[in-house]
Specification:
about 50 residues
Length: about 50
């Protein structure tokens, strides 16, 4: 009886850990995509001002 309780608890803990890892991966991928999407080149006026 103790073995089945321990096994079911282990499976539940593993499920929660896997869910958290999946959520963290999705969040990191979302941040990376947003960072790449919002990278913009500087306008020409700013480039000209930096030359001085």
């Amino acid at each position: 009886m103790k073995k089945t309780i321990r096994k079911s608890l282990g499976i539940k803990v593993l499920g929660v850990v896997n869910c958290l890892a999946l959520c963290l991966t999705a969040y990191t991928a979302n941040l990376a995509c947003n960072w790449l999407y919002y990278q913009e080149e500087e306008p020409e006026e700013v480039k000209k001002m930096r030359k001085f």
